Amino acid sequence: MSYEAYKNNQLGFNTRQLHAGYNPAEHYRSKAVPIYQTAAFELGDFERCIRLFDYSEEGHSYVRFSNPTNTVLEKRLTSLEGGAESIALGSGMAAISNTFLNIAVAGDEIVSVNTLYGGSTTLLNSILPDYGIVGKFVEDENDIESYKKVITDKTKAIYIESLGNPGMNIIDIEAVANLAHENGIPLIVDNTFATPYLLRPFEYGADIVCYSATKYLAGHGTTIVGAVVEKGGFNWLNGKFPQFEKFYDEYKDTIGKEVLDETMFTKRLRIRYLTDLGSHLSPNSAFNLLQGIETLSLRMREHTANAQKVAEFLESHPQVLSVSYPGLKSNKYHELAKKYFPKGPGAIMSIRLKGGISAARKVLKKVKVFDYMVNVGDAKSLIVHSATSTHFGQSKEEREKAGVYDDTLRLSIGIEEAEDLIDDLKHALDSIEG
Ligand SMILES: *Cc1c(COP(=O)(O)O)cnc(C)c1O
Fold it and tell me: How far is the CA of 213 from the centre of ligand 1 (A)?
């Protein structure tokens, strides 16, 4: 038989999550994607070695640069996201830090928001500034004028999350993308909480999408993985990015102008940063990811349906002060959720408790189905007190800007029976009074 499904991007999402990017005929017809557990590949002959090292031929030499198992994962993600090319890396933070380093050099700025994943805030606030790359944070992420105020000639990108952590705030991606493009800079979106099943930021103008694939893409809490996907076609030669001009001159005759015009971001990320900073993803981890992605849409449908039921229950409980979940009609992002998340705004939510931090402590002690963990996006339900874990070490003011109060719990709703999750939370919340 011939295998054609691997390269047909017209197929539906459910089909592509099983087949995209993998042609068994190129791998001894193994139906499972093989794990290439090797550190290096034989180069063949003298001329081929030169072609591999000047990048005029695509192929594998040393695995810190590429590996066939990872290549399948990258192609699958590219297809699901509707992008031009992807890179898989050793973690979500590797994906994000390598992206920042690729886009900005000393003297440059990256504009972002206060409602970011803690590690990303730390990068922009405390780590990259030591290397001359400064994060600038907008005052109000829902007000486009706020972004205009902080964008300068030095700004090289706007960086946001499609669903903020842990408040589940939604930014008007389309408006921010337009503003970025008016300024000749790309919009980068961390789409971890949404996944390409719920939202494809490229359809709203984003240029780069980053993932902690550790979460829903892997789906089972087994593996740390990151990914960067490039939409393709952004003009990196518009005068704002001298590092890309230099790269273009260096590689236009070997990689080729057409390829660079389409995917120069990913090419430079791989050749400069993946290779020489060394955030390589092990092929075993890539394999786990591929297993997870096969059921992504099925899991996301269950996750979001459960989340809606749990959020509605929590909103009705007398011990709960507020629930941040955009699927609720009362939520301030409900209208944006309808635009960007017709399939449901993910399955992570945060709640505030009337009884303060001591109530939060009681709930964590009483839950029996929810696991007390900092992870999210596992098939299993997880709960955590953000102020003493994910946002530990930030000042009270910094935390509260991100929506993390002393009485805040973050929940990641799994795919158990919704009734069991509600019973578990009801029991724990009812125990607060006593
Ligand atoms: C977990 C997470 C990250 C970091 O990813 P790792 O895979 O843990 O390195 C980045 N962004 C968001 C939104 C996350 O949830």
Answer: 8
| Ligand 1 mutation pick, 214, 285, 404, max ligand atoms within 8 A of CB | 214
Residue 213 near residue 227, CB atoms below 8 Å: yes
pLDDT of 315-363, one tens digit each?
999 999 999 999 999 999 999 999 999 999 999 999 999 999 999 999 9
Q: List, in sequence order, every beta strand (DSSP E) within 274-329.
A: 320-324
Please name the residue whose Cα sits nearest to atom 6 of ligand 1: 92
Which residues have CB under 6 Å of ligand 1? Answer: 91-93, 117, 119-120, 161, 165, 190, 192-193, 212, 214-215, 224, 226, 376
What domains can you pick out in the chain, each with its CATH number? 11-292 (3.40.640.10), 297-433 (3.90.1150.10)
Q: What is the pLDDT of residue 393?
A: 79
Each residue's pLDDT tens digit, 42-84: 999 999 999 999 999 999 999 999 999 999 999 999 999 999 9
CA–centroid distance, 119 to ligand 1, in Å, is: 8
φ, ψ of residue 209 to 5 degrees: the values are: -120, 135
Q: Are 408 and 372 in contact (CB under 8 A)?
A: no
Alpha-carbon torsion (322, 159, 80, 90), positive or negative: negative
Q: What's residue 434's pLDDT? A: 62
